[in-house]
Design brief:
HIT family, subunit A, five-stranded antiparallel β-sheet
């Protein structure tokens, strides 16, 4: 997608420091953090929502969560605790139409969210 902010980050049209990267996923620090530690795990493949990923691409989710596992261990937040958030649609708070997972840590999270 030519106008997708995250696609531009993935293909280096917009340079951003990466906390993690492999052949399917990048992880960056959020520029508008909602917690003391706020990271975004972004698949390289462009899909606006989880429900739009075709069945033949199911390994995308395995790659995404493997990257998240590596990052929470690398960042030292696995023991302390963290929250994963995936928003889908504007009413849910999705501001970039490209699947991404928020990794939040560093403050007490409340329930229910929102």
């Amino acid at each position: 997608m030519n106008d997708c902010l995250f696609c531009k980050m993935v293909n280096n049209s917009i340079s951003v420091p990466r906390v993690y990267e492999d052949d399917r996923v990048i992880v960056i620090r959020d520029i508008n953090p909602q917690a003391p530690r706020h990271l975004l795990a972004i698949p390289r493949s462009h899909y606006p929502g989880i429900h739009l990923v075709p069945p033949e691409e199911h390994t995308l989710f395995q790659s995404l969560f493997s990257a998240i596992q590596a990052v929470v261990l690398k960042e030292g937040i696995a023991e302390e605790g963290y929250r994963l958030v995936i928003n889908s649609g504007t009413s849910a708070g999705q501001s970039v139409d490209h699947i991404h997972v928020h990794i939040l840590n560093g403050r007490t999270m409340h329930w229910p969210p929102g």
